[in-house]
Amino acid sequence: MNTRGQGRIFTRKGSPNFYVAYYDHGEEIREPARHVRTGEKLKIGTEKNRHEAERFLKHRLGELAAEKHGGRAFVGPQRERITVNELLDSLERDYKLRDKWIPSAASGAKPVREHFGTHRAVDVTSDAITAYIEGMREQGYAKATINRTTQLLGQAYKMAIRNKELSQAPYIPRLSEVGNERQGFFETADFEAVVAHLPEYLQDLTRFGFLTGWRKGSIKSLRWSDVGDGVIYLQAKNSKGRKAESMPLEGELAAIIERRRSAQILEDGNGTNRLAEFVFHRDGQPIGDFRDAWATARKKANVDPDKLFHDLRRTASRNMIAAGAPQAVAMKITGHRTDSMFRRYAIVNEEQKREALAKTQQHIAASAGRKVVSMAGKK
After folding, report:
1. CA 60, 62, 65, 71: dihedral to nearest 10 degrees?
2. For residue 30, how many C-alpha atoms fall within 13 Å in the half-sphere facing its CB?
3. 310-339: per-residue pLDDT in tens?
4. Which of 7, 10, 176, 247 has its Cα between 20 and 30 A from that of 68?
């Protein structure tokens, strides 16, 4: 009979498979013997399968020994059954605990869940992930979108390793985004054309984005409790940078909020009134995904089909700089944290370049007529 440290191979009545048993921290673990390379269960009846069962048992004992000597954490059969969905559930709980879970994270995790969710985490290979990425590219997804999606998967695996639920993770390639930055922005006429075809509940929200450059999720999160005397506040948990922001209600922004105050009062069927919790809402409910409504309005307005709501952020940055606002102030309004990221958004158009060249040439012409005094003759 094998000793406790060696484990044992056995069969069960009514089962066609070999089983192995071994001890981990004093507890006996039993599981079907599997082929070390393919993972297939080993059936009784051949000497070859018995040798493979012995090999599997040695593999398990080797994993236990490696952990005791500072190697990878031993996973075992129970944890090997963990699915990708369970990994993502753990990641979501961790994000929420640290106030990092935002709508874009849930949106990014959705396609991963649909494709890999029911797979055992240990069965997902680098080849499978590469094929998934290739499929997303064939469907027209941008490289940045693919990277944000697979990044969540990678973070879920890293956390599982940290929590000793897995011992290793598949390699997840990252696509280069160099030269892939979006360049789109809205001219005012195109913007107004799109807004005119949007449902009424989206029009003020879109105008707010056009003026401030705030992200869609941040705007949708605003509640009346965030509106002060002439200022609207964005809570840190609803900001991508996890930093609270504020926006003075000046000019058209003030007019937008006044319109929203009127829309705050909702009539119930029994003749009573109630107040909407959110500044921008749909019949009192938070506004969800409106990509279909946006695409319809864009099509009816005969505007470039590649124009996204997020391009309003780029547009606001450009408009502020064109209007002469200091970059530091413009960054405070849009919520950009770094100069390099802001510069990616503050794109200039051809007309702005033409004006800059004209002003430069005027400056050169004016300076050419000025008398130049040599400093050499000065005492």
Report:
1. -100
2. 7
3. 888 888 887 777 777 776 766 767 765 555
4. 10
